[in-house]
Structures are given as structure tokens and as C-alpha cells.
Amino acid sequence: MRMGGMTTELNRVAGLSALAAGGVWDLVIIGGGATGLGTALDAAARGYRTLLLEGHDFAKGTSSRATKLVHGGVRYLAQGNLHLVRHALHERGRLLANAPQVTRRQGFVVPCYRWWDMAFYGAGLFAYDLLAGRLGLGRSRLLSRAEVMRRLPTVKTDGLVGGIHYYDGQFDDSRLAITIAASAADHGATLLNYVRVTGLLKQDGRIAGVTARDMETGTDYSIQAKSVVNAAGIFMDEIRHMDRPDLAEGLSLSQGIHLVLDAGFLASDDAILIPKTADGRVLFVLPWLGRTVIGTTDTPIDSASLEPHAQESEIAFLLDHAAHYLTRAPSRSDVLSVFTGIRPLVKVKGASGTSAVPRDHVLMVSDSGLVTITGGKWTTYREMAEQTVDAAARVGDLSPVPCPTAGLHLHGWVPYRDPTDPLAAYGADAPAVRAVLAEQPGWDTPLHPNLPYVRGEAAYAARHLMARTVEDVLSRRTRSLLLDAMAAAEAAPVVAAILGAELGRDDIWIEREVASFRALASASVV
Fold first, then answer.
1. pLDDT band for position 279 (50/70/90)?
2. 410, 452 contact by CB (below 8 A)
3. Which of 89, 123, 321, 350 has the fewest CB atoms below 10 angstroms from its CB?
4. The pTM of the whole model exceeds 0.90
């Protein structure tokens, strides 16, 4: 088994060779987001022969567009969903212990403008601490008006009476996704991006595998499996309809947007939580990777899309509400980037609007044996994966093996993350990254003056993190697109040239990649 201090083994050529070699897989997992990747890690760590297929890039959809919080869900506590909150808080503690290189403890302040809010939210956050138990991150406490002003120098003070300070977790979502993918590979799983499942194989009415197509070459594969897991996120109904075309839609889709601003709008290491805006929503103002992130919205939508777009009403909502609480009101021209994610919420009869739909996950096994996992959230990915592999093992008649992931350190684990190290997210792989940066003159220079990444990281991403496109590098292997869309667009030619050399692409491919990414980046500017 390859361990965390060595370079990751995400190798697409080797993965395709394993696919072509045939044989019967214990589990084939459809979907390379948080849930699918977590399921691949769990299954491989138990010793099952595991294959994961993602039709686009890992974490291309919802899993790279989260609010960047590893949290129990304060608002779910207000809804009385103690079961969800308790489980999420325990998973929060496990995740921060298992992946300190891409997660961290984050302080929050709830500014209060009425005395009774101090008592109400203080009691709620005290309960939050109790539910976390021994996996808590620190006790919440009441703050005076002066303490709130010191911690949040840009918060509006008219009517401010005090606040509450508490802790939750924060993370880099797509970096965590790649870390989980590398961990699954460490344990022997085969993972492939840009290989799309095109159908389900059946034998005597039971799921017996999948058909799939390599989207780069057009090569088709017929893949046998003892168990197939549908972890396709917002596209899970497409896979379910391959099994039974007559099934009703199972998801109620909602999108949430986030605005990215300069760090000066918050100017604090603490985040702000507004637990209830005028229309009853939750608002976060977060420090993240040297920026300020404001979110989120909860807008019902009719259909899933790989590239959802922020609605004008959502942008206005966040800007207007940020102006209610920040001394410096942001305008559209201040927005460095906007990103939009779609939540795969399970339909619930009688729910009024998607904000009322529970965020619990749902595990389903069809009559033919297709295992579908949907709903949930990033924080509980490991628990979802455990339950999914348990079900898949029963369906596939696999030898039962206990789940080993509760205390399993993820690839690149280090005991301490150095916040001053620009390569800290690579964890124990940082020396290998530095070795690549030293190969070529200029590879240790910035991609762009406004971005915290260097050129050689694109080469490392192509060689070891299965990056295949400029978007893969600038959106998910680094977070350039989210941090500053225009700077990312300006960096695209440099990244395309490096990728072209690493992947053996010609000038036409390079030009097409630059044009494609710049079109994508333009949609991230309001």
C-alpha cells in the first residue's frame, strides 16, 4: 500500500489499462463527487476490488461549489433536527483529525442586535457544543459589544449589543475531493475521470455491471461488477432511469450562490454568521484562502446543469444583505468571482420550498440491485460512504468487512498544517511538488500576481492529480477561478502551454482550451 508521504498515484493511463484488462469488479461506483469518492475509499480500504467512473472531472459539480464549511448545521439545530446535527458534528471532528492539510478550525461570531438574541443563540450554540461531545472544537462563549467590534472591525455597530463566539470547521472542497481520490488509490482503487457510464448491464433482471465510454478517445467498455453504486449527485435520476425508465424524479433541486470579495471586506480571522436574515435565511461571511466569501442562497430550480448560473435576484440578495451588516457595502464591481452549486435534495411530500427540505441523505436499493446514495452534505461524506458500502456488499454478496475509515488518515496527512506554507494543502506531498517546481526555470513563479499559485503546480496536477484540462487546473486542482475569475482567465495560456507539453497536445488543443476556459471564466463575473 502506498502511504501519504509519497506522490499520489492518480494515473489515468494505468486506470484505463486496468479497465481494458477486464475481470469482475466487486464495486463499480458511478460519480466522482464527495460521496462517490468517499465510497471508493471505504470500499478499497476494506479490500474490495473497486472502480470509480466519473463522466467529467472529479468534483466537477456540487462538490467543488460548497460553502467551504465542515459543520454540523446551526440552522438544522433551530429546525429541531438533532439527529442530523449530532452525526454531522461527530463527522466534522473526524474529518478535521483525518485531513488537517485541507481542513482547519474556524472561529465564528454571531453579532446580536437585540438582547434576547444573545440568550436565544447562546443557548443554541451551547447545545451545539454538547452535541459535539468529545469531538468538539472548542466552547462557545458570549461576547461583549467591545469584543465583537474588536473581532469584527468591519461589522456595523448601530444597535449592536454583543455576540456569541463559537467554532466550526472550514475546508477547501475540491482539494479534499482530490485528497480522498488519492487515498482511495493508495488503497488500490482504480479511479477514472472523463469516462462516462452510458448504460447498465443486467443478467436475469439483476444489475451485473455497466457500459462506459472514454470521453477523450471514444473507446467503449463493457464492465462486469458484483455491485453498482449510483453516486451521481444531481444527475442520480439519469442513472436510476437506466435501471427503470418509469421511475418518478427523486430530487428536488436547489441552487446556492456565493460571492467572492477582497479580504478587506471582512478584515478578520473570524467568520460572521447571521442566523436569520429578514426573510428567514442564513448568511455567512467567511475568510477563505485570502478572500471574503459571502453566501448562500436557496433557490428552487427545475433541472440540473453542469454549469449553473447565478440569478440576478440571488446576486442582489447577497449584496443587499452584506450591506446590512458590513460597514463597507460591496458593489457588483467588487465581486472577484461568483460560483454556483446545486443541492441534490431528496423530494419530501408537504415540504414548502427547498429550504424546508431536510439535508439528510437517503440510501436506496432497487429491485434489480442498483444501490443509490443521494442527499446529505460534504461533512457527512464518510458516514454516507460507510452505509453505502455496507449495502453494496450485501447486494454483491461480498465477504463482510468492518468499515475502517473513522480514524483513517487521508493521503498526505501531516500532524500540523503550516498556515504560512503556500503548498500546505499538499500535506506530506509538498516536497514532491517542490521537486517539480525546480525542474524548469520559472515554474516557481506565480501564475498571476493576484493568485496564490505557481506555474509548476499545473505540471504536478497533470502528472499526479489527473488534471486533463485548463479548467481542471484553474478551477479544482487550484482554486484560481473561484478566487479571481479574471486573473484566472489571464493565467489560462500559461496553464494550457504547460498542460500541452505534459499531455502531448498540439497548438490547436492549446488554443481551444484557452478559449473554452475564458468563456467559462466570463460567466463567473457578475
1. low
2. no
3. 350
4. yes
